[in-house]
Write a structure and sequence with these properties.
alpha+beta, nine-stranded antiparallel sheet, eight-stranded antiparallel sheet, 46 strands, 17% helix
Length: 784
């Protein structure tokens, strides 16, 4: 259903409402919520039907100075706030199968046009039935006390850490404005203020007695027993609204941080790396090579060169970018390239006679930003033609992966790097665009759509990055495939408490900090890009395993920036074991307990056999014991679990008693496949990938009559593959009788061998499979 009133209906609604002014309350409900509007108090409230909690109270609209006349239906409550030539129409609505309240609206002015920078459509108080001192808010600024949150872009969640009960508020649409949420504590409740920042929103004058309505962005609010799931449902709702269909997640290489390639690399070494990666890593999921800054021509004025239609004549790619793309394509890899789409330098003589191409500030000067350059006015038809030509040129060279930097320049806003919590960026401090009816956010979204139209549907769009200015967070949703969700990282280690407090970067934990906060966006609205992982020999092995394991288990965008041909075998093996993405469900367990969660659970229930992997990450400098209630983590407290430690390559302690507890050294991790014990042997782990069976095992089956355990494993050619089976010889049962695989596997030269368990591995069995070629191997282990 539409949640907006047609423009011609505004005055009619007012007339009808006048005849129902004696009504006290208006209510609507679905299977999840009951929404009530109190005519006398001019407030709304929301009750969760399952628990009976009235969790939202004293909801008010942003025009409470005006006469309020409600009109109800069984699907929505509509309220008109009107005075003289001003009108605001608000709508509270529900949909049958969606656990959110939708808050929509329009506003109009009369004969005189008006410019608006921001609107506060609603405020409301939240009550979780607990003292506010026990509650936490979680948003783009991280986990804080409700009265300490500086403001969050896109969403804000209030939760009780002890139960995970909570309320998720979010801005569903980002068509013309950018949603921001603020929290405070008043009268023992948490008050939420929703704000829509437009920048420059021009409301035209209506001819005669006609009001011209402008749609307010759509807000959603819902209550959830587990607020993590509420955030995931919010992201699903955005994906549905914008009809998002992401390009498949990819794994690859970026030249920017490599010691050998610092910058763009060069045409000889990039092919050397690509050739090595194609031979050694492509079978494991490696698929693209991306060339970064300094391949292009142009003058140096403010930030990078910007001649993206040509190479620097004396630069690293004298043969041109097309020649390199063709070589990468022959190796079966996607060619990727970095550029800045929406800014140039007005100082450059190249643009001497094209100053009308640039956005202007209110004082008439070009809209210049630090490092970003001068914002192009992409509402200008000449600029549209120019941007289209650049994109088609780059794509025509053979590049099907675009890393697009400095995206905030497309909205003509300031760079405020590093930007997490709300900061006043003076959005709208520019003169009108060439098309004055466009808002800053609308201009940015239209510009991204222009790039997509010029590039075609097959190009993978990688956005970079929201920390430069958070206007690119909501503004990019539905328009990019992946997004850098944090600032540039580094290979060093920084205490995460200081990192969060100071918004610092240049640390390998920069990506995990932001990627964890925004985990629910990943795979729903885009692939979260936490910046590259590093496995080079110069960083401690425990750091290399920690960062790559976090990326692999959280499932986020997997990018490397090491000189791959020079990696020691042990470091190259880390890359092999963390590709490709698992595409299963991954959640931070202690999400509301600590600013930097230490526990992740990956669960795959897409087959008959459920697989779980625990990731335990110690971000502290000191050793610590990580323990947690098994059922609260997502496991079954009534079951006993076998565990296998992937990097240690040995079984870990079996646990039950409703909790697990494992020692984890400082600045390191443990990755544990956990499998509930059955009355027969079970496959707990494999050696292929840190998820230990999720990406490589299908059709696992226990045949009680034949006493066999069987499955199909996707084996990489030349890579010894090991099965780790638990539950052997329990009470004298289940001794090994033999191992075998299909005749087709045997004919292909594959081998299979059972090996005696090592000391300390009582009741475990290891089976090793080798194959010269990558292939699915059907194996069977017989017992007696």
């Amino acid at each position: 259903m539409s949640r907006f009133i047609a423009p011609f209906a505004v005055l009619t609604i007012m007339a009808i409402a006048a005849t129902t002014a004696t009504a006290k309350t208006h209510s609507i409900e679905n299977k999840f919520l009951v929404v009530t509007y109190d005519d006398a108090a001019k407030t709304f409230s929301v009750k969760d039907k399952a628990s009976g909690k009235v969790f939202l109270k004293e909801g008010k609209f942003g025009a409470d100075l005006f006469e309020v006349l409600p009109q109800s239906s069984d699907k929505c409550i509509q309220i008109v706030c009107t005075s003289m030539r001003f009108s605001m129409l608000f709508s509270l609505s529900l949909e049958a199968e969606i656990p959110f309240l939708f808050i929509d609206g329009t506003f109009s002015y009369g004969d005189n046009e008006k410019e608006i920078q921001k609107v506060v459509p609603a405020t409301f108080s939240l009550d979780l039935g607990k003292p506010v001192g026990d509650l936490k808010t979680l948003g783009t600024a991280g986990l804080t006390a409700p009265d300490k949150n500086p403001g969050s872009y896109l969403f804000l969640t209030l939760a009780d850490p002890k139960t995970r009960n909570g309320v998720v508020a979010g801005c569903l649409t980002h068509n013309r404005g950018d949603g921001v949420f603020f929290s405070d504590v008043k009268n023992g409740l948490v008050e939420i203020k929703a704000q829509i920042d437009y920048g420059r929103l021009l409301i035209p004058a209506g001819p005669g007695s006609t009001l011209v309505p402008i749609n307010i962005e759509t807000l959603v609010v819902g209550y959830f027993d587990d607020a993590r799931l509420g955030q995931e449902k919010f992201a699903d709702l955005m994906a549905k609204h914008y009809k998002i269909k992401l390009h498949p997640q990819v794994n690859g290489y970026c030249t920017w941080y490599s010691d050998q390639h610092r910058g763009a690399g060069d045409e000889k070494s990039i092919v050397e790396l690509a050739d090595f990666a194609a031979k050694n890593l492509k079978p494991f999921g490696f698929s693209f090579v991306q060339i970064d800054d300094e391949w292009q021509d142009g003058g140096t004025y403010n930030g990078p060169r910007r001649g993206f239609d040509r190479v620097k004549p004396n630069g690293p790619y004298p043969s041109g970018m097309k020649a390199t793309a063709e070589k990468l394509d022959k190796l079966g890899l996607t060619a990727g390239i970095w550029f800045i789409p929406f800014a140039r330098n007005h100082q450059d003589p190249e643009y001497k006679d094209r100053q009308d191409w640039f956005v202007k500030r209110k004082d008439g000067k070009p809209y210049e930003t630090a490092w970003g350059g001068t914002s192009l006015d992409t509402t200008n038809p000449k600029v549209k033609e120019y941007v289209t030509k650049i994109i088609k040129t780059i794509h025509g060279w053979g590049y099907n992966y675009f890393k697009m930097d400095g995206l905030w320049t497309g909205s003509a806003t300031q760079q405020i790097y590093v930007n997490d919590g709300y900061r006043d960026d003076q959005i709208g401090d520019n003169a009108p665009f060439h098309d004055p009816t466009k808002t800053n956010i609308e201009v940015y979204r239209d510009a991204l759509k222009l790039v997509r139209e010029a590039a075609g549907p097959d190009v993978f769009f990688s956005g970079c990055n929201v920390s430069q200015n958070m206007r690119t967070l909501g503004g990019s949703i539905g328009l990019v495939d992946s997004m850098r969700i944090g600032p540039d990282n580094g290979q060093g280690w920084a205490d995460y408490h200081a990192e969060i407090k100071n918004n610092a970067c240049e640390s390998i934990i920069t990506g995990p900090i932001r990627g964890t906060r925004l985990y629910f966006l990943h795979g729903r609205v885009w692939w979260n890009d936490p910046d590259p992982s590093y496995v080079r020999a110069s960083i401690p092995l425990k750091h290399a395993r920690l960062i790559t394991s976090w990326v692999a288990l959280s499932g986020q965008f997997n990018l490397n920036s090491d000189w791959i041909p020079g990696l020691p075998a042990e470091r190259l093996d880390i890359m092999k074991r963390t590709m490709p993405a698992h595409t299963a469900v991954a959640r931070p367990v202690d999400y509301f307990d600590t600013p930097m969660p230490s526990i992740w659970l990956v669960t795959d229930e897409r087959q008959k056999v459920r697989r779980d992997v625990l990731g335990l990450f110690n971000w502290d400098n000191a050793d610590r014991k990580i323990e947690y209630a098994a059922d609260r983590a997502g496991l079954d407290a009534k079951k006993t679990y076998f565990a296998f430690d992937f990097w240690a390559n040995k079984p870990a302690a079996t646990f039950s008693a409703n909790k697990f507890a494992f020692d984890v050294p400082g600045q390191s991790c443990r990755v544990l496949a956990v499998r509930a014990a059955e009355d027969h042997p079970v496959l707990v782990s494999t050696s292929r990938h840190v998820t230990q069976g999720i990406v490589d095992v299908t059709d696992e089956k226990w045949d009680a009559d034949a006493k066999t355990l069987s499955a199909t494993s996707q084996v990489v050619g030349g890579d010894p593959y090991e099965l780790r089976i638990a539950g052997m010889s329990e009470g004298g049962r289940w001794e090994l009788a033999g191992v075998e695989f299909s005749e087709a596997d045997r004919a292909a030269g594959a081998t299979i061998e059972a090996r005696q368990a090592a000391p300390g591995e009582k009741n475990w069995l290891r089976v090793v499979i080798t194959s010269k070629e990558s292939r699915p191997v059907q194996w069977t282990v017989k017992f007696k």
